[in-house]
Amino acid sequence: MRKHGRPKLTRGTLPTPESPGPTCETIRDYPDGYRTIHNPVPPPRKVLAEYRDAIAKWPDCAALHHEFAGQLTFSGKYDEAFAVLETAAALDPTDAGIQSALAGNLLLRGRTEEALGSACRSLAILQAAAVPDILHLSLAHRRLSECRLAAGDPEGARTELVRAIELMTEVVRTRPRAKTLLAKMKKALKALIV
Fold first, then answer.
1. Which residues, in sequence order, are CB contacts of 31 under 8 Å at separation 6+?
2. CA 181 to CA 185: how far, in whole Å?
3. CA dihedral sign of residues 143, 146, 151, 157
4. Higher-confidence residue: 34 or 68?
5. Which of these, 8, 7, 40, lies nearest to 24 by C-alpha position?
6. What is the pTM of this model?
7. Which has the closest alpha carbon to 72: 96, 29, 43, 108?
8. Which residues, 6+ apart, have CB-to-CB distance to 57 below 8 Å?
9. Rounded Cα gap, residues 125 and 99, in angstroms
10. What is the DSSP letter of 109?
């Protein structure tokens, strides 16, 4: 195991537009640039109340809605998370992360065709960027693979997952931490091939 040195520990703060993460998160920044972020699942109840307060204060902040939806999802409140994600998507329809979160939520709720549409929008947003983020492109292809599999298209799912793996392999060259994601994708691909 790689040694990273003694980390600088940072605790989450109340969510704001500038820092939309939850108070329950713990961030460890290591001297070599390695970073870990831990959030308990499910989050403490006070976290949901903090997000409700923050959204009341900044109702037009898509990032706050997006983060709140994630905490609701971790709490098993999928329907409420979906409503919050719809608001986030209306506030910022060009946010690929919000579209991907919508796809994931729709999949959890068995709404496969709608999930496929959101996953395709997420990928299109990322591909349209002047300089696409390869890590997020890889994750978008992975999400689209999940949606295609749920829609009964195992061949399409394999194609998307192979593309996700190709992109993640490029990411690993500059971000070794991504090896874990790459290994998970390869495992998922093996399951599709069998």
1. 4, 5, 6
2. 6
3. positive
4. 68
5. 40
6. 0.85
7. 43
8. none
9. 9
10. T
Rounded to whole angstroms, the Cα distance separating 5 from 135 reads: 25
Q: Going by DSSP bridges, is the β-strand pair 26-29/8-11 parallel, antiparallel, or unpaired?
A: antiparallel
Which residues does residue 35 pair with via DSSP β-bridges, in sequence order?
29
Which run of H or of E encompasses 9?
strand 8-11
DSSP strand E in 23-165: where? 26-29, 35-38
Q: Per residue in 135-181, pLDDT tens?
A: 899 999 999 999 999 999 999 999 999 999 999 998 888 877 778 87
Above 60 in pLDDT, residue 73? yes
pLDDT at 1: 45
User: From CA 76, how far away is CA 47, in angstroms rounded?
Assistant: 14
**Using the 8-state DSSP alphabet, how is residue 93 labeled?**
T
CA 101, 16, 59, 126 torsion: positive or negative? negative
Q: Considering only CA atoms, which of 43, 14, 13 is closest in space to residue 27? A: 13
Burial 80-93 (b: 16+ CB within 10 A, else e): ebbebbebbbebbe
Q: How far apart are the C-alpha atoms of 18 and 52, rounded to whole Å? A: 16
Structure tokens at 133: 């983020």
* φ, ψ for residue 29, nearest 5 deg: -105, 120
Nearest to 72 by CA among 87, 62, 83: 83
Phi, psi of 8 (to 5 degrees): -90, 125
